[in-house]
Amino acid sequence: MAITTDSDSSSVCRQCGYTAASGSDAWNRISAPPFGRITQCPECGSTDVTNRQ
Ligand SMILES: [Zn+2]
Question: Domains in the chain: how many in total?
Answer without folding.
Answer: 1
